[in-house]
Amino acid sequence: LLERSLALSSKEMQDLYAQLKQSSDTQLAQERNKLQAVVHSLGDGLCVVDSEWKIRMTNQQAEKLFSGTAQALCGRPVYQMISPGPEKFREACLITDATFPPLESGEPYRTDDGVLVTADGQLVPISLVVTPMLSDSGVMGAVLVFRDISHQKQVERERLHTEGLLRRIQTGLSELAKNAQVYGGNLQEAFRTITQVAAECLRTERVSIWFFTQDRSAIQCAALYQSATREHSQGSVLMATDYPKYFKELNSERIIPADNAQADSRTNEFTATYLAPLGITSMLDVPIR
User: Fold this and answer.
1) In the predicted model, is pLDDT for residue 288 greater than 90?
2) 48-57, 75-84, 180-189, 248-257: least confident range
3) Which pLDDT value is given to residue 19?
């Protein structure tokens, strides 16, 4: 009876162990699946590297940014595709003059001036966060999270460009306000000063002032300043019969911004005789009321 009881107890223990193991494996699988779902649903690129900075895991967004599959990326040194890189491998890094602290420090590293190179050689500006993975035995590797910030960089460049332009315009207006030639009664000298200051502030090649003839059949250039030669001129005449579409726009008294002047229907009449010969690509004409 004792042997039978022990045998039954042993079988029950084995069954219990099997149930616990199965339950544990199931729970681990569920947790692993949850973790994978979270990692792959991230909008940022994520990759896990070992202590030698070789890629061991990537999510779908990282594969998209790297333009490669997880299988193709696995085992590749991440510092050949992302900058900054580790000091230890400085000479093999994508950009050798930018490195981050060693993983042994345990400190996360963050930058908004990172660069990622795609499979076709394109450089993509990224924000990058590097978080070391440490254990009692030492460095295990790191988790890298990165995001394409091309749009943000473009917005920042445009903001800086606009701020610079506004500062130059403010400086130009201040200069005109204090310039004696503008208020000295000599209209031609005032026009020469205004066109030159406008060209310098706006950094354009040509700035000119035109007036309608009395019968509005033509416009005549009262002043033209050319930045490349730093020359002033005047006197050119444009006839309404030669450029009907342009004169129609002028008579509407609307601003004419033509980014591609040779293709814009309002200004392309000038292409053969004016725009193409002088290499002019853009025009901005503002009516004087």
Assistant:
1) no
2) 180-189
3) 63
CB 80 within 8 A of CB 94: yes
- What predicted TM-score, i.e. pTM, was given to this entire model? 0.57
Q: Are 46 and 145 in contact (CB under 8 A)?
A: yes
In words, the CATH class of domain 153-285 is alpha beta
- 103 close to 93: Cβ distance less than 8 angstroms: no
Q: Which amino acid is at 288?
A: I
Cα distance between residue 103 and residue 142, in whole Å: 8
Q: Which stretch of 163-172, 211-220, 276-285 has the lowest confidence by average pLDDT? A: 163-172
Pairing verdict, β 85-86 and 99-100: parallel
Mean pLDDT of 171-192: 78
**233 Cβ contact list (under 8 Å, min separation 6):** 221, 224, 226
b/e string for 220-239 if b means 16 or more Cβ within 10 A?
Answer: ebbbbbbeeeeeeebeeebe
Q: Cα(23)–Cα(119) distance, rounded to whole angstroms?
A: 43
Domain ranges, ordered by start, for the chain: 1-34, 42-148, 153-285
**The CATH fold of domain 42-148:** Beta-Lactamase (3.30.450)
Q: Residue 204: which residues within 8 A CB-CB, separation 6 or more?
A: 198, 227
